[in-house]
Design brief:
- By secondary structure, the protein is α/β, with parallel strands linked by helices.
- The chain folds into 2 domains: about 50 residues, no CATH class; about 250 residues, Alpha-Beta Barrel (TIM Barrel), CATH 3.20.20.60.
- The protein is about 40% helix and about 15% strand.
- The protein is built from 13 helices and 10 strands.
- β9, α12 and β10 form a beta-alpha-beta unit.
- The radius of gyration is 20 Å and the shape is globular.
């Protein structure tokens, strides 16, 4: 048995620790970084493992991951969505009323589920990125990245010195409040940075952005891209669609993971066929609004 799981299954013939240990073995073959020390979890042991970022590993393997966009704040909604069966779940703080304080309980609610949380920062800001990472976010989506310099700034904010500028704190949720051994040295391997390209300028600089070390994936923002191309509110305009298609092809040809959000199921499948490997197919607020409207209409119309 690997050292990261010593004491888990022998001491727990049934129950949560045995299940968790077996799940870990399936999802992380050969990974010995995360471990349980002291008594096993079912006996109240100290958890010192650094959570593995399965989303990042699946991106690298180009496995298709289907996501849902979370715009509604609150841990209750987060837990409902976390158990719905999606591979990844965005907690949006750019166009939704979220911040590091409100994201924290969302991350805590999702932690019990298999879904991978992705937090979209409000902006490409070093201090904001630090706060989200310290709260335990492992995958960040940075909006409105328009140049290689901006991409490098985001990378630096994700990394500790000397490779970056992330401030060091030793008792954050990210490091299990000081229980993860050498968190500062090990954190980078489990952090994932997605940059969002959503303007004409960003597409002009796309090759340079994709070449930045530390950028794990590229996400296309169709709504802002439509506005930048002169078609605000018309993401389905032929020019916008053609630009999105070409951008996906460019990202895939460069050997980088491509992602997108679209509420059109047919277009989502089309993007997947072109090569997107993390594809968000719905927004919780839109699902609630349209579902409520449809239910009301079904009873109030003949």
């Amino acid at each position: 048995m690997r050292p990261d799981l010593v004491g888990v299954r022998p001491a727990c013939q049934a129950g949560s620790s045995r299940v968790a240990g077996e799940r870990y073995e399936r999802q992380n073959p050969g990974n010995v970084r995360s471990r349980l020390v002291g008594r096993p979890a079912c006996g109240g042991g100290v958890v010192t493992g650094l959570p593995p970022n399965r989303f990042k590993r699946r991106l690298a393997a180009r496995e298709q991951q289907i996501g849902l966009w979370g715009a509604l704040p609150g841990s209750y909604v987060a837990e409902i969505l976390a158990g719905a069966g999606f591979d990844w779940l965005v907690f949006d703080t750019e166009h939704a009323p979220g911040d590091p304080i409100s994201v924290l309980p969302q991350l805590q609610a999702a932690a019990a589920y298999e879904v991978a949380p992705v937090v979209r920062a409000a902006t490409n800001d070093t201090v904001l990125i630090k706060r989200l990472l310290d709260a335990g976010a492992q995958t960040l989506l940075i909006p409105y990245v328009q140049s290689a310099a901006e991409a490098r700034a985001a990378v630096a904010a994700m990394r500790y010195p000397p490779r970056g500028v992330r401030g060091v704190a030793t008792t954050t949720r990210a490091g299990r409040f000081g229980r993860v051994e050498d968190y500062v040295l090990r954190a980078e391997a489990e952090l994932c940075l997605i940059v969002q390209v959503e303007t004409r300028d960003a597409l002009d600089a796309l090759d340079d952005i994709m070449a930045v070390d530390g950028v794990d994936a590229i996400f296309i923002g169709p709504a802002d891209l439509a506005a930048s191309l002169g078609h605000p509110g018309a993401a389905g305009h032929p020019e916008v669609v053609a630009t999105v298609e070409e951008t996906i092809r460019r990202i895939v040809a460069a050997g980088r993971p491509a992602g997108i959000l679209t509420l059109d199921p047919a277009f989502a499948r089309h993007c997947m066929a072109l090569g997107t490997c993390f594809t968000a197919v719905g927004i919780d607020a839109a699902m609630l609004a349209r579902g409520a409207e449809a239910l009301a209409a079904s009873f109030k119309t003949g």
